[in-house]
Design brief:
single chain; alpha/beta; two-stranded antiparallel sheet
Length: about 110
């Protein structure tokens, strides 16, 4: 599987999907360089940006309309800037709920946040 993927909505917006944490600019995935390879584990495992979003910080990822992240289990989805953290499922305990979003609905929430 790729580290990240980009999905286009029917309206032509680009939404990034990534396991844990978005980069400062999504374009890094278009032509990975040495800096990307030095930090790729952050995109897979870091919880720092999700924790910041939970305290009210605005998280912004350039080069893309919105980004959806998982990895850090939270009670409710959180939209901060143009980034949504949606991991509400606790698979190891069987508790929690699986979050399903319509991308167009997500973009409405993101646009209201900007």
């Amino acid at each position: 599987f790729p580290i990240a993927m980009t999905v286009k909505t029917r309206s032509g917006y680009k939404v990034g999907l990534i396991h844990a944490s978005p980069p400062e600019n999504w374009d890094i995935f278009n032509s990975p360089d040495e800096e990307f390879f030095d930090h790729w584990t952050n995109h897979l495992w870091s919880r720092d940006k999700c924790k910041a979003a939970l305290t009210g910080a605005k998280i912004q990822c350039g080069g893309i309309d919105a980004v959806v992240c998982g990895h850090h289990t939270i009670e409710q989805p959180v939209v901060a800037g143009n980034v949504a953290f949606v991991d509400t499922h606790v698979s190891w305990s069987g508790e929690g709920e699986f979050t399903v979003l319509q991308l167009e609905e997500l973009l409405e929430r993101v646009e209201n946040f900007l």
